[in-house]
Amino acid sequence: MRLFNRPAWRMLVALGLLLAVTARANAFDLLQLSLQLREPTVVRGAFTQEKYLRALPQPLVSAGTFVLAGDSGLLWFLQDPVQQDYRISAAGIAQRTPSGWKQSSQQGPAARQNELFLAVLQGDTEALQRDFDLQLSGTAQAWALTLTPRSRLLAQIFSSILIQGGATAERIELRETQGDSTRLLLTDIQIDDQLSPSEHHDLAD
User: Fold this and answer.
1) What residues contact 203, with CB distance under 8 A and at least 6 apart?
2) Model confidence at 53: pLDDT above 60
3) Using an 8 Å Cβ cutoff, are 123 and 19 in contact?
4) Is 74:201 a contact under the CB 8 Å cutoff?
5) What is the pTM of this model?
6) If residue 12 lies in a helix (H) or strand (E), which one and from where to where?
7) What angle do CA 103, 50, 185 make, to 5 degrees?
8) How many domains is the chain partitioned into structurally?
């Protein structure tokens, strides 16, 4: 016995195709994530970083504020447990000294983490895809991006990296192959259309 006649069957098939196309059109993908993270001109906020080391029973905690300016770079103002200002840009990592900004010679995993962090905040998924397999889930309002290293070198440092957020990145977790991990929470996020004069000077210096 036929449950559906031919016209009804064709209508169901057409409806199924329409739903599939609509779902695909509404799916949140890497391009949309990249555009979403690149949209704000300036992002300011506070951060709390927890570094979990196998040799220590409690995490090392640091806190401060940050300013992200599009493709210009990131100002990272550490306030606790010590006060120190950093600038992360395409030119590398610089540290503020009494005589001005001084480029850091930081290399290895620490330098790589800072480069990755900047790429994530700037929404540079193209750069991330050169070194990682990316798996995105969720929606524009609540998404999660998992990075799995492709190269043998990075696989020796990281087992995976998890980024979560909404309009901007809000939580980053770096999991190292040796068992250590770093968790970064970004809070009190504010979006602006321009830098302050002092911020502009710091990033242009």
Assistant:
1) 69, 72, 73, 75, 87, 89, 195
2) yes
3) no
4) no
5) 0.80
6) helix 6-26
7) 85
8) 1
Q: Would you say residue 8 lies in a domain?
A: no
H helix count then E strand count, the chain: 6, 11
What pLDDT is stored for residue 108 in this prediction?
Answer: 60
From residue 129, how far is each of 56, 90, 99 by CA, in Å? 33, 17, 38
Q: Per residue in 147-177, pLDDT tens?
A: 999 888 888 888 999 999 999 999 999 999 9
Range of the domain at 90: 30-203
Q: Is residue 170 in some structural domain?
A: yes
- Residue 99 is classified by DSSP as T
Q: What percent of the chain has pLDDT over 70?
A: 83
Residues 87, 198 contacting (CB under 8 angstroms): no
Mean pLDDT of 82-103: 89
Question: Parallel, antiparallel, or unpaired for β 132-138 and 100-103?
Answer: unpaired
